[in-house]
Amino acid sequence: MSQNPAPPQPVVPRRGFARRAVRWLLPLLVVGAAAGVWQRERLWIWYCAERLERAGDDGRAAWGDHLAAAGEPAVPTLLGLLRHDDPNVCGAAKGALEKLAGGWANDDPRRAAFAVRFVEVEPRFSTPGRAAALELLPIVLAAADADVAQKAKGMVATAAKSESVDVRVQAVAAALRPEVDGLEMVVPLIADPAVEVRRAAVLALGPARDGRQALADDDLLRCLHDPDDEVRQLCEMGLRSRGRSPREIRLGRRYTAPDPAERQKLLIDLADEDELDVTVWLDRLTADADPAVRAGAARLAVERHADLRERLEQMSRTDPDGTVRRIASYYSRKMATR
């Protein structure tokens, strides 16, 4: 008798295969989930930035707060907003960066990384973005190394030449920071066409700071003739802080007057001056741009017995005006006979 074949046995999956499948799939699932979270975070930052750009004045700050709450990942986006041409957008981005980076301790690595990124992208900021960026400098410089501080100084130098009045005014304030130490950048701004800039420049340069002066007294005295009354007052305050007396300031005002007639009046003042050494003043007036002032200074030097014999001899040979040369020669010989 033939035997019936045995029925086929069901195939039982091997447990080892299932375990291997789990080991392969689990990392993929974890990576996929992490990527989803990361993309969701990026999308949220992008969405907040879009809403900030489109929001009105009432809602812009709220979207800036959302970006600040997103933490360090939002820094590149916020810095990117400083390339915007709208000052309101740049102002909101600046406020968010103040809350975000300003909340980190000075020794926090995130703050140092922010400072490096800031100076790297700053050249691409718009004009209103640069104005906002200058207000962020205290945060940047608090954690800056020497390289970042040097780049920040270059940023201030560029801002001092900006076409924007607001940026130039802020550049003056930034130049006063000890990390920047850039008062020499401010000197050209005392002749700026914008009165706001001139006021800021004279206020910064007028007082002697740490025993040094970036602007000489004679250059500061010229600000006494500024068309703006406040600039003139700030100039006088600066001169007094340097130890100049009211008499010296009065004489200096005439010495630097753009009108030659006013400078000639200084000779009259010096003729009656009994308390000051007039030699220094007369020596300066012998180099005046007006021939009449130079000739008058030569005459008064003899009358006041000022020790300017060598200077008069030099004038008799080299003065560009023939009449002044003859007058200087006459008074030089007269001084020699004494």
Describe this structure in words.
- The structure is a single chain.
- This protein has 18 helices and no strands.
- With 338 residues, the protein is mostly helical.
- The chain folds into three domains: 142 residues; 63 residues, Leucine-rich Repeat Variant (Alpha Horseshoe), CATH 1.25.10; 80 residues, no CATH class.
- The longest helix is centred in the N-terminal third of the chain and has 40 residues.
- About 3% of the residues have low confidence.
Structural class: mainly alpha
List low-pLDDT spans: 28-38
Oligomeric state of shown chains: single chain
Q: What is the rounded distance between the termini? A: 163 Å
Strand fraction: under 5%
- H and E string: HHHHHHHHHHHHHHHHHH
Average pLDDT for all residues: 87
* Number of extended strands: 0
Biggest sheet descriptor = none
Provide the descriptors you would attach to this structure in a database record.
single chain; 338 residues; mainly alpha; Leucine-rich Repeat Variant; 18 helices; 68% helix
